[in-house]
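Extended Data, panel c. Modelled sequence:
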Amino acid sequence: MFQPSYDNIFVDKRIAVTPQNTLLESRINSKEEIKKILSVSVNPEILSSELLAGEALLTGRAVIRLLAVTESGDVVGLTANSDFTEKVKGDITPAAKVFWDVVPLETNYEITNGVAKVSALLEISGEGVISEETQILTGGEDILTLGKDIEFSRMVICDRIPTVIENELEVKQNISRILLAESFLTVKDFSVTDNILTFSGKATVNVIFISDENQILFKILSFDYTQEAPVNGFNEATALSLRLRTKNTKIHMDVVEDLPTTSFTVEIEAMALLCGYEAEMKTVTADAYSMTHETSVLTKQIKSATPIGLFFGETETTANVPMEGMIDKFIAVSGIGANVIKIVNGEGFAEIEGVVSGDILYEKEELTDSTRFAIPFTYTLKDEIISTDTPLTVSVNVADVSYRLDRQDADITAKLNLSIEGRRENAYTAISAIEQGEELNRAEGAIEVVLAHKGDTIWDVAKWLHMKQEDILAVNPDLAAPLEADAKIVLYHKL
């Protein structure tokens, strides 16, 4: 009697929400009317999300930093917060676990009646998982199955962990006033032990300030950091992934009476996303047939992904940036950022391409002005664990920027830190259903000789003949598979 049996398993289906754009607009006032904007940087983040069927309602906030020249000719630094909401459509359900990222693509500004109006085009993307119930064939009466052991990996826990990284830094010049502070964080290593997350990496702080001589100066300072934060529910044996994003940068001046103010304390507010994955081995039916009937099968592709580690890299890029005529003095670099635009995987390597951008502040005819620059960079990650189908997530941050003036041009050199997270994706094909066809016509004699082909396995031969593997091997004990050459196989049938 043809009677299949089934079982249900739960598998994490990966969700990738197609990047979608939203427009952020903000008005920024100064005590004195703004005459010219020199540099704008936008640092957005998603604060909350409500998942619905096919869409998500997102709420976010952006920190906007502005360098501007007032009507009196003073250069000022302004900071403002701007909230935004967006409806994002995609393969989303209320039961999904989706984690969002948002990056600024393009920033524009204008000045109306001394007030700055900043608009930024933001790109919102999301990825995550949803637990999906899948039916698979386990066997049944008159049904023979070929089992395959596969590794299922499931996201079991994720947590957003706020943290503040502090350090005391120092410049050589006496600081009168801070105009702008930008910071970047790169993760090199992390672990969880005894409910404590420990992560370390590189931090970079770009400070633009006014000295006692009323000069605008800038300094990019880098330092190593190690940070700890309490976590709950993370098993040390599980595979972990960590992403770190800078939220805000605060500067506290260390002022001592009658002494030059050259040191300050930086507070880098950041958010870490820590996720844990557990893997287990399961046996699924990879192939099936009946001894009594022709059959047809339906298949289901099952995918799972497991973090394979964190890679750290450093690279450097230099490009020539044309200036608008001869300038008197290079002042600073601000609004610095770096974005990855392309990742090409190979066997044992990945080519990463991106762009470093920022504003060059300069002085010309006793006036302060700026020009935008964008220079490409490349980095090759080499590791035998990388393959053509290894998904990579790359975070790239600026570690340092230097310049050299050459007549009307500036040679800009940027040093970059890269934090690269890899995943191993496994894809398996399992039998989800088997359907009964016509009954087999058994008209063979007592003894039969058949020809099996090179490369066939015992399972292939048994399925072709609708017999049990052990019955074939009982008559052909020297049969080795897969066959190294075509072979004749003797069969005995009961009459």
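The helical segments are 458-465, 469-475. This feature is highlighted in the accompanying rendering.
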